[in-house]
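One thing: mind reviewing this one?
=====
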Amino acid sequence: MDTTFEQPARARLITAENQELPVPATLRYSSTDPLAVCVDFPPEVSLDGRGVTWTFARALLEQGLSGPAGGGDVHLWPYGRATTVVEFHSPFGLALLQFDTPALRRFLLGTYAVVGAGEEDLEEAVEQGLSALFGSV
């Protein structure tokens, strides 16, 4: 059975001019992909007018709440006690966003209520990932 947990979040986009622009986001977790979390952004805040979803490891979110974490396209780190910075890299550039740390912690705890830490079915997750990769889904 697929269980999805979603939580609205307020992010602040940090511009090149060091301005903070509010950006709505939805944090999402699904039991069908237990190792990952998603951050969904609505079409009105994307460059091409389509919604954008970033998917990365739930463990990365957990690590980034207490210290610098990440590699590749997603990096996270705490910025003071109440803010976590999330940096998304794409071929079109990068986006630097700030999230309220307590909101990210609440979301992470909510994901553990769906699938506990260490209780992920890794065999099924790998099978689904390979099926998606090779187009047999």
